[in-house]
Design goal:
By secondary structure, this protein is an alpha/beta fold. The chain contains 16 helices and 14 strands. The longest helix has 17 residues. The protein binds FE3-S4 cluster. The site of FE3-S4 cluster has 14 residues, from helix 15.
Length: 429
């Protein structure tokens, strides 16, 4: 394939983009008879188009064959990012009658799909967003709208091949669950959902799952914000490498969720290992012989880089990646008997919100003036339209993206600092 043709394939994936870092090549691919029939159009034009995308990407990245996937997660759901061109692309595909053939979930949309008016979302945006969701639903996709599908029942197991898009979910699935996925672009994930296949390259292969860097952590890492600050620093250093952490043996799920999300934001880390914690690190030697060692003895640089000099706070956002039940519970406990001065959003999956409601955790948050917001997050919602200028968050990923994506000045710190800012309207201390 010529460079020009490769460029065309990449451009055809707009507006989602591709975010892979593996070598490109012109491999000859071995397809099964069923895969050849899909490519020949025997299953209809929509399946043919999907298989063409999978095979083209496989050739670009030197894959020899395809691999059956057990689940797919599709990003590029918010109308804010898709625009009319992306929305029409999806609706046209849906009109061709294509259906997904493996369990497929969606990343967050640009708004809470039922309570969007309460967030101040315009009618125009809401109708365009709902049209996008309808196109996905017509293809048989579950409109779960969460970047943490592993918290709500889509939890792949060790060694399972999947095709997920959202960078933080990709990181969690590869690292904490031991599943295998590259970071798919929107159309390539959709194509994987329609064909049930993806190309076997990158992180689907053992040789690319070896650690390229050893990270010796020699400072306390306790809160989710600490994990995020550490992830920010490491992502910047290792870029698309595979870090192997020492010194994080007590890590829990919420910390690892924050760590992976931050590394995927400041770098392009899609897989990491934690000594004694993550499944591949526990199973054997996963460190490449030439791995470089990096020592982290302070998180100060990470906190400094993610904070802007702003004191008055307009919005406090918790739940990037989407909040777990435990995070909602911690927030509810802290807010009991208090009253917020600023907007407070705890963003989460609709299913998690329902569980929180059943357990009486939403009521104290709402009584304090906060909102448990489902289906969306502040990075993919049209925040600029809401007239907000400053944000406090405990998420390094949100702090990293909010200035550019949402035009906000940011304070980044621990959950208690953020909640204090929600109550006083100012960043503490
Ligand atoms: Fe999820 Fe939005 Fe953060 S998609 S990872 S909450 S930027």
């Amino acid at each position: 394939m010529t460079l020009q043709k490769r460029q065309l394939v990449l451009e055809s994936c707009w507006p989602y983009g591709l975010n892979s870092t593996f070598k490109v090549g012109d491999a000859k691919m071995n397809l099964t008879s069923e895969e050849k029939a899909m490519l020949a159009g025997d299953f209809g034009p929509g399946v043919k188009r999907a298989m063409e995308i999978i095979v083209a990407l496989g050739k670009i990245y030197g894959a020899r064959e395809l691999v059956v996937v057990q689940s797919v997660q599709v990003a590029g759901v918010s109308y804010k990012n898709l625009g009319d061109a992306g929305s029409e692309f999806l609706q046209e595909w849906a009109k061709q009658g294509v259906r997904v053939c493996v369990p497929t979930t969606l990343n967050p949309a640009g708004m809470d799909l039922t309570h969007w008016r309460e967030l101040g979302i315009s009618e125009e945006f809401a109708h365009k967003q709902l049209a996008v969701i309808e196109a996905f639903k017509a293809m048989g996709i579950i409109p779960s709208c969460s970047c943490a599908p592993y918290l709500i029942g889509t939890s792949p197991t060790l060694g399972q091949h999947i095709a997920w898009s959202e960078s933080s979910a990709v990181s969690f699935a590869n690292s904490v669950l031991g599943a295998r996925t590259n970071r798919e672009g929107g159309p390539s994930a959709l194509a994987a959902a329609i064909t049930g296949r993806t190309a076997r390259y990158g992180l689907h292969l053992d040789e690319n799952r070896q650690a390229t860097h050893i990270i010796e952590v020699r400072c306390p890492v306790t809160s989710e914000a600490d994990f995020g600050a550490l992830g920010y620093l490491v992502g910047k250093r290792v870029k698309n490498g595979v870090p192997y952490f020492r010194g994080l043996e007590d890590s829990q799920q919420n910390g690892l969720k924050a760590l992976g999300a931050a590394m995927a934001a400041s770098g392009a880390v899609a897989l990491y290992h934690v000594e004694g914690v993550t499944p591949e690190a526990r199973a054997g030697d996963v460190v490449a012989t030439e791995a470089e060692t990096i020592v982290v003895d302070s998180l100060d640089e990470g906190y400094a880089a993610l904070n802007s000099p702003v004191d008055a706070i307009d919005l406090v956002s918790i739940g990037c990646p989407h909040a777990s039940l435990a995070e909602i519970e911690e927030t509810a406990r802290w807010l009991e008997g208090k009253r917020t001065k600023t907007r407070l959003w705890i963003t989460t999956a609709r299913k998690t919100k329902e569980q929180a409601q059943e357990q009486g955790l939403v009521e104290p948050i709402e009584a304090a003036g906060g909102k448990v917001v489902a289906d969306t997050c502040l990075v993919v919602a049209p925040i600029k339209e809401l007239g907000l200028h400053s944000l406090a968050t405990n998420s390094a990923k949100a702090a990293f993206y909010a200035p550019a994506y949402s035009g906000l000045m940011v304070r980044f710190g621990r959950l208690e600092q953020c909640l204090e800012a929600a109550v006083t309207g100012r960043w503490p201390g």
